[in-house]
Each structure stands twice: as structure tokens, then as C-alpha cells.
Amino acid sequence: MSPHGFADIHQHVLWGLDDGPATRKQMHALLRQNVENGVRLVYATAHAAPGLRRFNAELYRERLKEANAYCRKRDWPLRILSGCEMYYSPAAVDALLEGRIPTLGGSLYVLIEFSEDVSAARIGKAANSLYRAGYRPILAHAERYRCLVRSPARAMAVRDEFGLLLQMNCETVLRPRGFFCRRFVRTLLREQAVDVLASDAHDASRRPVQMRMAYQKVARLCGKRYAKEITKFGWEIACKARKGKV
């Protein structure tokens, strides 16, 4: 794999698994949109909630195989890797260790989420428990958690103290809503505290990819070098996983 094009580590691209594409046709449209956006690597992060509901790993693998076959049939330069967006719970670490839910591309990176009213202390405690188990947590759509968005300084402190990587959605970069969100986006981008930019796409119309436009905006605000770093981080994950380093 060559790191040409964007890598999207947060996308609900597989059909019939969660609130992403409901049909095969909708998945095909989303795959096409990735190609048109210059995305070349996608992590299929279906929702997972260990301890709350069973993750259908067999169906997930079937749909992942189907998506890659569709891309190969059309000779598209797009590869879909495994992953999930894991709602953190006390059962999370065991589910990961037992292989019941997938990490990002078979690496030790895992995308995690919480309820919007979670405390910063709980986020930090969760990150710490994952680190102790050998995983590298990435916080999905960091802009959704009130404890962080109302205090950019707290968000950066949690990031630094616990080594928690922060992922921001393309839609938020392009159209931040409200004073606190606009300040949060502006501050974290200025301080280069956003580690990963991802689409969190669910379909080609209601919640589309938008990676190219978000990259262009970050490049204008913060420079091309940083914009490339946060839109291609998924290549680094894939490379480390392939080499057995992470």
C-alpha cells in the first residue's frame, strides 16, 4: 500500500450493519464518493458496543469482503480495512483482547466514543485502561463531548496526559455550529491538536465523505503539511500493522 490519497479512519461504509448505508446500492454510492474525493483507504468502522449488544463479526466480514470485491471489479484505487467505532464500556478491553470486535486494520489502534455528556475524567480513565492493555485509543468526533468542546484547554490536557489521539469530523471543520464549537475547532487546529481528520460518513447524501473540501480548508488555515498529516494518518496505521509494529 502506498500513501497516495486520503485515508479515512472513521466511516460507516458497509451496508446493513448499523445506521450507515441501508442497502447495497447505497454502499456502492458511498464507495464511489470516496474515489471521487481522492480517498484511497477507508476503515469500515461499524458501531460496536461490547457488553451492550453483540457485534455480528461474521456478517461484518462478509460485507467487508463484498465492498473490496466491488472496488476491485471497477478497478478503483480504493481499499477497505477493518475497524469499528466502539462505544466504551467496562467490557471493552476484554472484547478487544478476545478478538470479538475489530481494531483499525488489525493494528492496536482503536476508535472509541462516549455519550455526549461524558466527563473528561471518564474519557481519561478509559484511555488509560486501553493503554494498559496495549491499545492506542483514538477519540471519535472529539467535538461532540461537551466537557471538551467548552474547554479547548481541557481537551488538549486530556490528549497530552493520556496520549489520547483526537479525531475531528470533516463536517465540523467545514461548518462548525455555535460559538463553543467554532472556538474549539479554531483553537485545536491552530495548536495542531487534531490528530486525525475523518469523514464519519454514513451515506452519499445525508452524511457524505467531504474529505477533499475539509483538507483544502485545513490547508488554507494551517498549511498543507499539517493538512496532509491529519488526512493521511490512516496510512501510518496500516503500515505499522503490516510490519507488526503496532
Give a summary of the structure in a few sentences.
With 246 residues, the protein is α/β, with parallel strands linked by helices. It contains eleven helices and nine strands.
Main traits of this protein?
6-stranded parallel beta sheet, alpha/beta, single chain, 9 strands, globular, 246 residues, 3-stranded parallel beta sheet
Structure characterization notes:
The chain has about 250 residues and is an alpha/beta fold. It has eleven helices and nine strands. The chain has a six-stranded parallel sheet. A three-stranded parallel sheet has the order 1-2-4, sandwiched between helices. The protein is globular. It starts with 5 loop residues before the first strand and ends with a helix. The mean pLDDT is about 95.
Q: What is the element layout, followed by pairings?
A:
Layout: E1 6-11, H1 24-36, E2 39-44, E3 46-48, H2 57-73, E4 79-81, E5 84-87, H3 92-97, E6 109-113, H4 120-132, E7 136-139, H5 146-149, H6 152-162, E8 165-169, H7 170-174, H8 179-190, E9 196-198, H9 211-222, H10 224-231, H11 233-243
Parallel strand pairs: 1-2, 2-4, 3-5, 5-6, 6-7, 7-8, 8-9
Helix pairs in contact: 4-6, 9-10
Beta fraction: 15-25%
Low-confidence stretches: none
User: Within the largest sheet, what's the order of strands?
Assistant: 3-5-6-7-8-9
N→C terminal distance: 16 Å
Overall morphology: globular
- Main sheet attributes: strand count, strand direction, barrel closure: 6 strands, parallel
Number of helical regions: 11
Query: What is the averaged pLDDT score?
Result: 96
Q: What is the oligomeric state here? A: single chain
What is the N-to-C order of secondary-structure elements (H for helix, E for strand)? EHEEHEEHEHEHHEHHEHHH
Q: What's the number of extended β-strand segments?
A: 9
Q: Structural class of the secondary structure composition?
A: alpha/beta
